[in-house]
Write a structure and sequence with these properties.
The chain is of the alpha+beta class. It has twelve helices and eleven strands. It has a five-stranded antiparallel β-sheet with strand order 3-2-1-7-6, with helices on one face. The chain is elongated. The relative contact order is 0.07.
Length: 359
Amino acid sequence: MWYAKMYFSGEKEFFENDAFGMQGLPSKQLELPFLESLLTFLELDEKEITPMLERISVNWEHFVESSDLGAHTAAMVELGMLAEKHIYFRLLYTRCFGCISVNGFDQAEIQAIALDLKEFAKQFSETRKQVEKFLECVLDVDSAGREPQKQAAKNYHHDQPRDPELFRFEPIPLSFEPVEPGRCTPVLYSSAVRDMIDYSLRSCVERGVTVRRCKNCGRWFPQTGRVSAEYCERPVKYGEQRCREIGAFRQWTKKQTDDPIFKAYRKEYKKALRVDQSRAHHRRAVLCLERESPRRKEKMRPRDHLAGGIPAVAPRLKNIKLRGRQAAGRVFFVYSGAGIALCVCSVFLTLIHPKRFIG
């Protein structure tokens, strides 16, 4: 009977949970990129998780002492909330659920769970610090180098760390079995969260996988591909782009901002670009002109010879000026004629005015 198992295959890690202990029929399966579970475990909010673990431990102890189903229900509700936050906590939920639903209030198992929950709540913060220390001293390619095996041998004496702040390895329940067609791998049948952490770290050392902090988001990422990679492929917190897509351009831009040589280069580059664009525009204009009909080309082509010391004007422009003069002449003639007619009328009316005869 098993409740949770974990294994690595290629560049993926797999989790299977079965709350009813039916081997081979997991109730929940999860596939993650290699080492993603451990790295996200380090990013959990300690101020949020630690109080929840303490309340679960207190409620479970109360359930053990008084068989209070209300305390058991309260503990299971918070365990379910933790299980949704991280895959490691689903092991706690599955184990607590199984000891009641399958084993029928197995007192020995219930008391063992109470001790494990209490111990895990106390060591949650310390365990995370030990893992961080292990990453920096053994797996970090920038500070520890590219050979995790040598760094592990340097920092451990048999199974004990030389530095008490480093993670301490213990025996874990490993099996070896086929996990997919044509592939066998070690499989962890875990009963504690610490076993999963232990298995992840030792797998990195065995495979020679190093880690590095991303230069864009600052989070750890495993170097399963190029060992020179500086940006992770993990999704950023607010958006769909990955650090590898946006990080390199951002760092390059920041680096070149205050570089005087780069500024001079950009200035000359833009100047050359403007010249090229002007030439391209001229070429396009020439091509468009060549596609026009011969008659239109003749009208639009400026004359390049001189006539009487004055540059010749295109025929079309000459015609426009001539028509303008003719129109101005006609307007002057009309207005002049109207003025003469008005003068004649005024003289005639003066001659025939009635007062002239009366006086």
